[in-house]
Specification:
426 residues; Aspartate Aminotransferase, domain 1; Aspartate Aminotransferase, domain 2; seven-stranded mixed sheet; 15 helices; 38% helix; binds 4'-deoxy-4'-aminopyridoxal-5'-phosphate
Length: 426
């Protein structure tokens, strides 16, 4: 049998860092990344056959648990009809109808293959529609790895300490204005200092790439108002929050209507998928109805559509979100009690099925600077203590956690007990 270490050594020869996406390398926590051989329900299994209760869920898509039989059946059926046609197929129509039904602010949608493609395309469209070049993003928010977004970015860029990537031309980086999250006054000042220049504000409505930070009361509404005043488009990047915090996304939860939205993760059920969409007046400017070019060899892939539609069916069932939220609350409450009992100062956050945990004296964490002030050494100790006990958290203090409907109360009790054991040693 090939061991984890052998695989990692082989992987490092031909793949940078041995991984195809940086955070997977465990740079944020140290130690060897686990190679995963299979997954089922709430658990992933490494190449030695050891199982772990998984709170990463492939970074969000596996909201109904791993290897869900409905999704597998849909994928098998679709695969038997052919893997890709490069021509329109019925599943794409159903997917577009379903997304536009679930997300009221979305009149039209275009499928792509990743969250990065979705955000990149949405910003191109916003620039074209407004005839302006600048965009506003927020410190610690991550919108994929397109050049315009790798400026003070979150997620792996933050974990690796390169929030602004080399290779992004300065002329492009200069067009990305970065402001603190949850500070509407900073946005107002910025828009007033750049009148007529800002095409779009792009925001994760719940920040999930610098741990998990909910929007302050009224913050998203203020962004909407400011965008209206300045002729700037509001883009909600719901690649993570879409169908994670509520059916209909964060925009339905907070009742704010963006001009454009981006999705990914859950809508692919584990297959590579993204989508951007929004108001008809903008989406009709996308090729071929309009001049804004956007395309993809595998976009709307029939197998991916089948997986995504099966996932959307599962999450549309009555009570799905109530159950998911209740489980997530049970986990967060349990962890909070464990931290209190151990006398370890911590703060927690939760929106629907996503959660965050912070090692801080503060009672809540609201922006990037506060995240950076948290104790990442303690996170590493918790991470490895939990891993030893068979619980898999995201391998970085700057990522949100995800619960799935396949997590049982026993899974959560086991997780909390394991965390309590680790926290007692602090
Ligand atoms: N936007 C957000 C909010 C994300 O969380 C991510 C990925 N974590 C992306 C965009 C990029 O998506 P992808 O990795 O599929 O390109």
């Amino acid at each position: 049998m090939t061991t984890n270490s052998e695989l990692l050594a082989r992987a490092r020869v031909h793949i940078p860092g041995g991984v195809n996406s940086p955070v997977r390398a465990f740079n944020g926590v140290g130690g060897e990344p686990l190679f995963i051989e299979r997954a089922e329900g709430s658990r992933i299994y490494d190449v030695s056959g050891r199982g772990y209760i998984d709170y990463v869920g492939s970074w969000g898509p596996m909201i109904a648990g791993h290897a869900h039989p409905d999704i597998l059946a849909a994928v098998k059926q679709a695969a038997e009809r052919g893997l890709s046609f490069g021509a329109p197929a019925p599943g794409e129509v159903t997917m577009a109808e379903k997304l536009c039904e679930l997300v009221p602010a979305m009149d039209m949608v275009r499928m792509v293959n990743s969250g990065t493609e979705a955000t990149m395309s949405a910003v191109r469209l916003a620039r074209a529609a407004t005839g302006r070049d600048r965009i506003i993003k927020f410190e610690g928010c991550y919108h994929g790895h397109a050049d315009s977004f790798l400026v003070k970015a979150g997620s792996g860029a933050l974990t690796l300490g390169v929030p602004t990537s080399p290779g992004v031309p300065a002329v492009l980086a200069d067009l990305t204005l970065t402001l603190p999250f949850n500070d509407a006054e900073a946005v107002r000042q910025c828009l007033e200092a750049n009148v007529g220049e800002v095409a779009a504000i792009i925001v994760e409505p719940v920040a999930g790439n610098m741990n998990c930070i909910p929007p302050a009361e009224g913050y998203l509404q203020a962004l909407r108002r400011l965008c209206d005043e300045h002729g700037t488009l509001l883009i909600f990047d719901e690649v993570m929050t879409g169908f994670r915090v509520a059916l209909g996304g964060a925009q339905s939860l907070y009742d704010v209507v963006p001009d454009l939205s981006t999705f990914g993760k859950v809508i692919g059920g584990g297959m590579p998928v993204g989508a951007f969409g929004g108001k008809r007046e903008y989406m009709e400017q996308v090729a071929p109805t309009g001049p804004v070019y956007q395309a993809g060899t595998l976009s709307g892939n029939p197998v991916a559509m089948a997986a995504g539609l099966a996932n959307l069916d599962l999450i549309s069932r009555p009570g799905f979100y109530e159950d998911l939220e209740a489980k997530t609350t049970m986990l967060v409450d349990g962890l909070r009690d464990a931290a209190q009992a151990a006398g370890v100062p911590m703060a927690f956050s939760q929106v629907g099925g996503m959660f965050g945990l912070f090692f801080t004296e503060a009672t809540e964490v609201t922006c990037f600077d506060e995240v950076m002030a948290c104790d990442t050494e303690r996170f590493k100790t918790l991470f490895h203590g939990l891993l030893d006990a068979g619980v898999y958290l995201a391998p970085s203090a700057f990522e949100a956690g995800f619960v799935s409907s396949a997590h049982t109360e026993d899974d959560i009790r086991e997780t909390v007990a394991a965390a309590a054991d680790v926290l007692k040693t602090f």
